Amino acid sequence: MNKKFIDNNKIKIRSYKDLNIWQRSIGLVKYLYEITSLFPKEELYVLTSQIRRSAISIPSNIAEGFTRYHNKEYRQFLYIALGSCAELETQIMIANDLKYLEDNQLSVIIDELEIICKMIMNLIKKLNTVQN
User: What does 56-101 look like in DSSP terms, one character per residue?
Assistant: First the structure.
């Protein structure tokens, strides 16, 4: 019953918006929108668009999975979010190679992605222990 999931601090999570993982991934989306707004205009429909869509996919899949009735379905959406993390990391590295990002920006994004990925994996593990 993921809608009444209780975390380690015994706080009831009633909405995906209550999840720290969702909040962090929304923060990453906002940061990436700021950064990609400075990319060359010819990248608007290519790399800029891909980065934004991959980033948006992470909190979107966390939210959609949360609203599913069964933990099995929720886990599947979390695995999709993990895939989006890998896709985003690849695109960010390409952007860095093309000199669209500074090394410190790359580092901030990669660090945040690693944290988000670990949080997703921990949530998947926790869902594996909860009977639906």
Answer: HHHHHHHHHHHTSSSHHHHHHHHHHHHHHHHHHHHHHHHHHHTTSS
Q: Which residue has the tokens 């010819």?
A: 42
The amino acid that residue 128 corresponds to is N
2-129 topology per CATH: de novo design (two linked rop proteins) (1.20.1440)
Pairwise CA distance, residues 26 & 84, whole Å: 14
The SS3 call for residue 12 is strand
Whether the model pTM is above 0.85: yes
Helix (H) or strand (E) holding 129: helix 103-129
Phi-psi region of 41 (alpha: psi -120 to 50; beta: other; left: phi over 0): alpha
Q: What is the residue extent of each domain of the chain?
A: 2-129
pLDDT tens across 41-72, in order?
A: 999 999 999 999 999 999 999 999 999 888 89
Query: Residue 124 gets which letter from DSSP?
Result: H
